[in-house]
Amino acid sequence: MADSKFSLFFLFLFVFLTVSEGKFPPLIKGVKVDKDDKQPFVGVNIGSDVSNLLSPSDLVSFLHFQKITHIRLYDTNPDILKALKGSKIRVVISVPNNQLLAIGYSNTTAAAWISRNVVAYYPQTLISGISVGDEVLTTIPSASPLLLPAIESLYNALVAANLHTQITISTPHAASIILDPFPPSQAFFNQSLVQFILPLLQFLSRTGSPLMMNFYPYYVFMQNKGVVPLDNALFKPLVPSKEMVDPNTLLHYTNVLDAMIDSAYFSMKNLNITDVVVLVTETGWPSKGDSKEPYATINNADNFNSNLIKHIIDRSGTPFHPEVTSSVYIYELFNEDLRSPPVSEANWGLFYGNSTPVYLLHVSGSGTFLANDTTNQTYCIAIDEFDVKTLQTALDWACGPGKANCTEIQPGEVCYQPNNVKNHASYAFDSYYQKEGKTSGSCDFKGLAMITTTDPSHGSCIFPGSKKMKNNTKETVNSTQIPEASGGAAQGLKLWINGEKSPYLFTCSFLILSVLIPLMAPW
After folding, report:
1. Are residues 136 and 278 in the same domain?
2. 135 touches 172 (CB < 8 A)
3. Which residue of the set 152, 282, 336, 408 is catalytic?
4. Do residues 160 and 259 share a domain?
């Protein structure tokens, strides 16, 4: 009995000393991971094929407002990198495919690229990674022999700048480099590509960089309709009979993305690589498609991205690696409306180029990421181009049968000015929209209204959506915070678990010892 108590004592002592000193290693070895990057995150890809895209400064303000802390660019846009200075937003920059040849053949070119696109901005702009090329092995196979030399040249330039421990470097792959992905335990890399993949994985293992994968459950579902349930692709709860079960491992898969991630882990294991983490550089669901894409709908896109965010924030890992949750970048932040057909190509975004949401994500309770605007702070206003008589008719309906509260737009009231139909209609539309709980279709008015994330309040005129938000702020407490009533011990325990030092650690120590001492007596 004494031996077991001694063991228990030293176990608690070890855990206390280890956690209080913050010595648990990061998941990716060899790279100094910032405290804010220790936990899995959800980031967004930002494409450039967008008409009326926000200016770089407005873009950064929008990212801050949406609590977006990680972004990925497909280039090294200098204006955006300058605007990001001091923002604490972490950005992955990219080497376009058309630059691989020059960098792969010339160390001097690679060094110049790092100097121009990394050293010139870091650390004021938090460049966290470099993605070299995009799906090179499958889209331009003739460039495959140059991929690793280009990556190594850039890495050597990072070493020379003493930035190799702060910035990871890798290359995004298409899911098609993995063959036989279902069940995951049978997955393996395309044998014709192993001559390029294995040396790359060895490099990633040696440098502590992730395997970047573009994983789209949407395409898996579309290619396997009737085999893969839609709910499985959308992260919806499944009855056990509909879960995918790997017959070799008996692991149960409740969603397609986890199965795709594990297929990458099993493929790496087959090559004796077991210490490289998967980073999902692209995933998403289109909100609109043509006649051949009936599942590209707003409802499905909303379900996929909302549930994806919750899944990552839950940090439940995958069935094969429950201890590791892959971070993901949603494809994409804005609809790239300038893209060529099919229709879905222009409709992967969470927002339109002017920052209004394409649909309202349901991410309440999943931290702060994208919680602003998409779930709470949205407003309904009149569109810019309208017929005055038609808009007046819609205004009359909102204030009459629609039972919107139009008191504030009456003569002499605070929202009467400016005295025009658009201003009054916007207020009435927003009143109706908020009254109806911002449900689908409540901001339409026969095409005369639109949802916006910009507060239309002006002067002393406060729109209904803003009034509602202010009331909610006063009445609720952020559920992610530890209430003050829980006392200093709870705060100390929170910091202790997070590996941070705190004056409350003494209190935690006292509480732990108060449990241990009775257990140890008599010795």
Report:
1. yes
2. yes
3. 282
4. yes
